[in-house]
Amino acid sequence: MKIRDLYEDLPTLSTERLLLRKFNESDAGDMFEYASEPDVSKFVPWETHRTIEDTNEFLNYILTQYKEAKIAPWAIELKQANKVIGTIDFVAWSPIHSRAEIGFILSKGHWGNGIILEAAAKVIQFGFENMKLNRIEAPCMIENIQSQRVLQKLGMRLEGISREKFFIKGKYRDMALYSILKSEYIRW
After folding, report:
1. Residue 80's domain is classified under what CATH number?
2. DSSP code per residue over 76-122
3. Strand partners of residue 156
4. What are 85-109's pLDDT values in tens digits?
5. Backbone angles phi, psi at 107, to 5 degrees
6. CA 79-150-111 angle, 5° bins
7. Cβ-defined contacts of 43-48 (< 8 Å, 24+)
């Protein structure tokens, strides 16, 4: 499978509580709601959205990625509320090596409810079963204990710490690298 094959028409994935789907222009308000929360953007390379224009700019970038069949995120929609509460995606994918990197963001009001665990389990399943991945990895800042717990619950193993790997928000950051192999994957 090639990147274009998947992202030319990113499929909608469904779980008990969630719809993982393409973003659309009408999602700007929902996205701004979580992307403007400083706690949500604390452990990611992008800055907190200060205005709806920041969100519209990012949303337009995502929509362009869809049009060009390039890597782009799924919106995490809470079915019962018909509301986008985060994003999840393979932020990097190497088809030749059957490897991808997963990333996610969730509105602070939904932390601790198993939402990311549910969404990530579905995306990991999709990666191994549909994209024919052999390895899925997830780097995160060592200070991001919540994400590390989610990755552990997903069956990912800590491989090690990359010292001062990225320069994010004014300083070099140590990154914990987690991964799961297809041979270790247990479908939920």
Report:
1. 3.40.630.30
2. EEETTTTEEEEEEEEEEEEGGGTEEEEEEEE-GGGTTSSHHHHHHHH
3. none
4. 999 999 999 999 999 999 999 999 9
5. -55, 135
6. 50
7. 43/140, 43/141, 43/143, 43/144, 43/147, 44/105, 44/168, 45/166, 45/168, 45/169, 47/169
Q: Among candidates 63, 62, 187, which has minimal Cα distance to 126?
A: 187
Residue with tokens 């995606």: 89
Question: 3-class DSSP state for residue 69?
Answer: coil
Domain count, the chain: 1
Average pLDDT over residues 59-77: 96
In angstroms, the CA 131 to CA 91 distance is 14
Q: What residues make up the domain containing 124?
A: 3-184
Distance of alpha carbon 91 from alpha carbon 93, whole angstroms = 7
Q: According to DSSP H, which parts of 25-72 are helical?
A: 28-35, 52-67
